[in-house]
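Quick illustration for those who missed Monday's session on complexes.
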Amino acid sequence: MTRSEIEPLVRGNIRSLAPYSTARDEYQGKPGVFLDANESPYPTGFNRYPDPRQKALKERISDIKGIPPERVFLGNGSDEAIDLLFRIFCEPGRDNAVAIAPSYGMYSVAAAINGVEMREVQLNDDFSLPGDGLLAACDTNTRLMFICSPNNPTGNAFPRSEILSLAERFPGIMVVDEAYADFSSEGSLSPRLDDYPNLVILQTLSKAWGMAGLRLGMAFADSYIIKVMSMVKYPYNISQAAQEQALKALERPVASEISGIIDQRGKLAEALAGYGFVKKVYPSEANFLLVKTENADALYGYLLSEGIIVRNRSMLKGCEGCLRITVGLPSENKKLLESLDKYEKGAIH
Ligand SMILES: *Cc1c(COP(=O)(O)O)cnc(C)c1O
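Prediction with pyridoxal-5'-phosphate bound:
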């Protein structure tokens, strides 16, 4: 797909939209007497509206990621970016989207909220990508395709070449959710943005960066797509507090935390595989493990009674019998294994 083929995919009402210009669009960052936005003049630390363009934070993220600021969108979590993509590209009641399954639940929730049909294509039994199946699910009204890699909850990353080959063949917007890319040896597709104008990459500060509570998601894409997303978002979608705290937290080195989690992931996977009631621990490129057990509901309830909360994914097609377990601190993982030792000894299952 070429750049010029993206614009016609945008809904007509969005294409003709004149963006709301905020009182604070001019004079950004310069000192002055601000009598333009009906704010309180009394300083509280938060009496002024935040930068609607998030210039400082975007520049910092641009440096870290090696992606120009005009290709960066910041949202109230990745969830905001997901919702915006539906609102920008899908005409309710007419257009549809395609996604892999099992995967992140927000794609179909956002589709349903926006009145957009979601066509889910089951991963192959070994959780590999059903490339032809995904394309076969498309018709002339398919505007978005969602691929999560590493995938939640299966934990595997798909080969970059397979995703890019789909992006080449799909005449719509290819959304690749890389929330867990920091834990994966497969790496990000962001260096390929130049060659794929229909590629939208989602990342987040919620996982490896440890800022889930701040709500900061990122989208990287062609500058035209970023421009439209910025035009449709709420003007002040990232609060002053989030912008300030994120700038601070981005100074914190996270590389050693990430390698610590990867190390713990390996140890935890090995220990879990040793239990009689564990049928399979799936290979993971993320910060969690998908574990197939004999009786997921019973084990889930037992862990809950021990004060250990994991995610029961056993009702998802393709994940029968599975719990999803986040890799925690070494002390937390130890506590989990101690509880599982008791479970195995007691043969409660
Ligand atoms: C956790 C997660 C996110 C992050 O969502 P935020 O709204 O940024 O917190 C995005 N995608 C997937 C697949 C996730 O598992």
